[in-house]
Amino acid sequence: MELRYKMLDILPLLSVPQPPIGRSSYNIPCPLCDHPNTRDGHLNINLRKNVFRCSKCGEFYGGVFDLYAYFMNIAHQDVLPALQVQLGECDSHIYHAGKRKKRSAPVRKLKAVEIPQATLADIEVRDHTYRTLLDLLALDADHKENLLRRGLNEKEIVRLQYRSTPLVGFRTIAKTLMMIKKCQLSGVPGFYTVENRYWTMTPVRRGIIIPCRDRLGRIQRLHIRTDREQRGKFRPLSSGDKPNGCATENWCHLAGPVQENILLIEGYMKADIVHHLTGQTVLAVPGVTGLAHLSDALSELIPLGVRHVMTCFDMDYLKNWHVENAYTNLLELLGSLDITFGTYLWSPEFNGLDDFIWEFCLQKGKVSE
């Protein structure tokens, strides 16, 4: 494996404060424990050593690929191909005084290090661990208000087990789950070991934790709707690039009982809101391109009585070619199954069906109690 890219290569690609000219290291707000507008950020980026670490929480640290993967919201294994597209196949581009120059020094080669990975735990183990984790956490007032504004009521918020992400104490959380609650962390995405000495939880940005459930209500994975994020607002809780960690998968989420007619939507939270407001059963994929488990999910539901599927994807598929192509793949998938299907359209003024239905409820005074 070649060390092709440095901090100075990737920083101009990220929406973070850029390094002052002539400095070998500088600080920016830590996305886990600092306010985004603070002047006294604790996340130090070392341009000489090509590493970063937060001196305040100590939980956010790593190298070039880690920083890029986090802020671009992509898997660690996808970083190198992405950088090859953006910066070139072999050359690293270093920025000096605002100008881009190519490296003249030979590329330093590193010995590849294989990170040990855990085998994915079965659904019963993941469900128990995630439920216990959610019992340890709380929902912050601003997050609760956000959910209320979206159409949920307090009773439904409690039932759905929405929580706010922890910003500190990840090692303590893991220790409590293992030692006191007797939960298994090995094979549960979101947990990993540090130096093979202790378990900890993957640091995450502040946001709302959304459980993804199967048809039996078991929690398969946890998704996070992050605060103040323009790109990659939804992030999975995963630890696939960490020692003894485990990657999560794009499982489907079912809101409501199995019925003959169901809605298909993108986004677990949208599914919960639409089901709550309409009473209709909603199957959700994490995103329009996250269809890996959709065929399996529908193949499991069809023998249970599902006969018709109405797609309700965000209206931006009408103008976003990337989303439109993914939607075409979705229609091909649905056409290969023993079901009928159609598509709901609504005013493009409301991108998501949840927003459109909630506005209708407000206008008609049909607000759930």
Radius of gyration: 22 Å
- Indicate the low-confidence ranges by residue numbers: 90-112
Kindly state the number of beta strands: 17
Could you state the order of secondary-structure elements as H and E? HEEEEHHEEHHHEHEEEEEEEHEHEHEH
Portion of residues in beta strands equals: 15-25%
| Count of runs of 4 or more consecutive helical residues | 11
Instruction: State the CATH topology of the largest domain.
Output: DNA primase DNAg catalytic core, N-terminal domain
Name given to the CATH homologous superfamily of the largest domain = DNA primase, catalytic core, N-terminal domain
Structural class estimated from helices and strands: alpha+beta
Ends apart, CA distance between termini: 58 Å
> What oligomeric state is this?
single chain
The top level CATH class name of the largest domain: Alpha Beta
In words, what does this structure look like?
A five-stranded mixed sheet has the order 13-15-14-16-17, covered by helices on one side. Strands 1-2-3-4 form a four-stranded antiparallel sheet. Strands 7-10-11-12 form a four-stranded antiparallel sheet, with helices on one face. The chain is built from eleven helices and 17 strands. It is α+β, with helices and mostly antiparallel strands. Helix 8 links the parallel strand 14 (261-266) and strand 15 (282-285). The model is unreliable at 90-112 (pLDDT under 50).
Task: For the structure shown, list the relevant keywords.
30% helix; five-stranded mixed beta sheet; DNA Primase, Chain A; 3 domains; 11 helices; alpha+beta; four-stranded antiparallel beta sheet; DNA primase DNAg catalytic core, N-terminal domain; 369 residues; Dna Topoisomerase Vi A Subunit, Chain: A, domain 2
